[in-house]
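note to self — DONT lose this again. spent like an hour looking for the file last time. sequence + predicted structure for the chain T wanted, 137 res
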Amino acid sequence: MRLLVDTHCWLWALGEPARLAPAAAEALALASNEVHFSPVVAWEIVIKVATGKLKLPGPVADYLTDRLRLLGHRTLAVDLPHVLQVGQLPLHHRDPFDRLLVAQAQVEGLTLVTADPAMRDYDVPLLWAAHGEAARP
């Protein structure tokens, strides 16, 4: 399985793994799965740290690079086709980070790991990361 991880799920996997649904935790840990990390996630984390909405156990640059190296996640660059795909998305969700993640997943044929209910409205495969809920009604 080829996965792209939403920001909150990536942070949960690192700091609060019990928040992940068992299927999501298992998929992220399975060595045979390709787990992709978007710079969009890093960008969102950097902004949350800078605005005081997120505390990390050290400098954000060290945290991100160390965790990526430790986890072995592949970095997925943001390219022009991803940005152009954002323009094709319906406005189900106005968060620019989430819209770009959806676009990347669509263009690259990735399954998005998320617990954001607004993502259900997009035409993108989801691996639901929240306990007790399904990805699509």
